[in-house]
Structures are given as structure tokens and as C-alpha cells.
What does this fold into?
Amino acid sequence: LVVDDEEELRTSLSNSLWDAGYDVVTASEGKEALSILKKTKVDLVILDIKMPGMSGIDVLKVITKEFASTKVIMLTAHSNLKHAIESRENGAVDFIPKPFDTEDILSSIARALG
It folds into this structure.
């Protein structure tokens, strides 16, 4: 599940993941992502930190509590140590700053899914 309020990034990342052989669903904001998680088994979420409405950290907290087997990789254009620490403390398996290289995302996914 790719969750980002930037449509262009969401589309390009999901296309890259499809090309790499992953089944992908997308959401433009946190509440939509949680709705998808309630209906669909999702192994991994790629989640933007800064979004309107629910922040990525708030969504991460819900995922960690209610969907414990789902791995989460956080993305942010505002890379700083505070966000990285907060992400890890709340259960994220990785933290990737934007802009990112698709290979970095694919490597992170491979590590997260084992």
C-alpha cells in the first residue's frame, strides 16, 4: 500500500513497484489507507509522514496497534532525526528521505519482507 498525498509520486512509485512484481494499492491520505487496511490484507505500507488530515505518524500508530503484522516504511521530504526516531519508536521498519532512488525503496522492501 503506497500512501502519499502527492499524486505524481504515488503513481510513479506504484508503477515502479508493479514493474518489480509487487501487487500495489494506493491511498492519498491516512483515513483512506486505514479503510483499505480494514478490507484488504496488506503486507507492507509505504507511508508519507506529512499529509493533510492524519499525519503519517498518526497512521503508523494505528497500523502498529491494529495491524501488527503489517510492516511500514516511512517517507518524508522533511528528513530530520526527530522524524526518523519517532518513526522507529512507533514501529516503522525503515525511514527513507525524499527524493529517493527506486532501488533504495526496493532494497528496503526486500529487507522488510525478508
